[in-house]
Amino acid sequence: MIYEMRVYRCVPGRLPALLKRFETATLKLWEKHGIRQAGFFTTLIGESNQELTYFLAWESLADREAKWGKFMTDPDWMKARAESEADGQIVGNIVSQLLTPTAFSSVK
């Protein structure tokens, strides 16, 4: 199993718009494409409270490439993204890391 950690740093004041997009559109599209989320988090204490951090679970790099590619080119995703950004850009920066569990990790 491979986990992907993605951190979205929002344009100031736009975190609520990002959360709404995930709740109303993104998660449904992920389900359509077989993308499994492994947790979502906002920052309580840290460098910025304008961040959304989440984890995705992948069977392999090939699994990620196939499913993520189909999601990113899905016309419904492109429409939802455009509609959610009608009032301006939401995300200023995205950081992504692909992680593998250690032998002693409670998550496998």
Your description of this structure?
- This protein is α+β, with helices and mostly antiparallel strands.
- The chain has one domain: Alpha-Beta Plaits, CATH 3.30.70.100.
- Helix content is 38%, strand content 31%.
- It is built from three helices and four strands, in the order βαββααβ.
- It has helices at 15-33, 61-72, 75-84, and strands at 2-10, 36-42, 51-58, 91-99.
- Strands 2-3-1-4 form a four-stranded antiparallel β-sheet.
- β2 (36-42) and β3 form a beta hairpin.
- The longest helix is centred in the N-terminal third of the chain and has 19 residues, at 15-33.
- The protein is globular, with a radius of gyration of 14 Å.
- The chain starts with a strand and ends in a 9-residue tail after the last strand.
- The mean pLDDT is 97.
Strand order of the largest sheet: 2-3-1-4
Provide the gyration radius in Å.
14 Å
As a percent range, the share of strand residues is: 25-35%
Number of domains: 1
The oligomeric state is: single chain
Mean pLDDT: 97
First-to-last CA distance: 7 Å
- The fold-level CATH name is Alpha-Beta Plaits
Q: Give the CA-based shape.
A: globular
Instruction: Catalogue the unreliable spans.
Output: none
Number of helices: 3
Estimated helix fraction: 25-40%
Order of helices and strands: EHEEHHE
- Alpha-beta content class: alpha+beta
Number of strands: 4
CATH architecture classification name: 2-Layer Sandwich
* Main sheet: strands, sense, barrel: 4 strands, antiparallel
What is the CATH top level name? Alpha Beta
Pfam family, one: NIPSNAP
Domain NIPSNAP: 3-105
Protein name: NIPSNAP family protein
InterPro entries: Dimeric_a/b-barrel, NIPSNAP
